[in-house]
Amino acid sequence: MMESTRLLSLAEDDGPLATLDALPASPRRAPADAPDVDRIARTVFDLIRAERRRSRIVVRSERRLLFLRQDEIDWVEAAGNYVRLHVGGDTHVLRQSMKNMETRLDEGQFVRIHRSAIVNVERIRELQPWLHGEYVVVLTDGTRLSASRVFSDRLDALIA
Fold first, then answer.
1. Which one has a higher pLDDT value, 102 or 17?
2. Measured between alpha carbons, how far is residue 70 from residues 23, 34, 38, 43 in Å?
3. CA–CA gap between residue 2 and residue 19 (Å, rounded)
4. Side-chain-facing half-sphere of 75: CA atoms under 13 Å
5. Hey, is 61 helix, strand or coil?
6. CA–CA distance from 89 to each of 1, 10, 105, 142, 156 (Å)?
7. 10 Å Cβ neighbour count for 76?
8. How far is CA 64 from CA 21, 81, 84, 92, 157, in A?
9. What whole-number distance in Å separates Cα of residue 76 and Cα of residue 100?
10. Cβ neighbours of 117 (radius 10 Å)
């Protein structure tokens, strides 16, 4: 078995996005063709672009575009066909369904606690048990949100 060598490693703040490994050239193995290298490079850069698009939320605000990192978002609130992004003391409105917003957000960083609320888990200060398996979720800024029984299993997973 041949030992692989690192050909390319691209990283973000949180760690590697993509790493390609290549086997060293041997008499039985021809070096990679240029089209193969181009195809691999395009695939890697497409993955990076997709990850960056997924990690940032673009919001129109007063004739300008804001690029919000997901870790800046405290919580998301449903508002009909829109969502309200609560970021620090500011609120930004985005035309998006809660279901679509939930799929755009990092599932390791956000948890849906109610049909009308998604919370950044890093902003949860405490969970207060309420009636029939429900919780009151208290955020670091003091905001109090109701967590419904339907989504309580997701909060229970945070506790475990």
1. 102
2. 37, 37, 31, 24
3. 18
4. 27
5. coil
6. 57, 34, 20, 12, 28
7. 26
8. 42, 21, 17, 12, 39
9. 12
10. 20
| Domain parsing of the chain, residue ranges | 5-25+32-55, 70-159
Residue 53 CA to residue 108 CA, distance in Å, equals 17
- State the DSSP code for 104: H
Residue whose token pair is 């390319």: 8
Instruction: Give the burial string for 105-114 (b: 16+ CB within 10 Å, else e).
Output: beeeebbbbb
For the question of whether the overall pTM of this predicted structure is more than 0.85, the answer is no
**What's the length of the chain?**
160
Q: How many other C-beta atoms can be found within 10 angstroms of the C-beta atom of residue 96? A: 18
Question: Which residues make Cβ contacts (< 8 Å) with residue 92, sequence separation at least 6?
Answer: 59, 61, 66, 68, 84, 85
Q: Which pLDDT belongs to residue 88?
A: 92
pLDDT tens readout for residues 96-147: 999 999 999 998 899 999 999 999 999 999 999 888 878 899 999 999 999 9
CATH topology of domain 70-159: OB fold (Dihydrolipoamide Acetyltransferase, E2P) (2.40.50)
pLDDT at 7 over 50: no
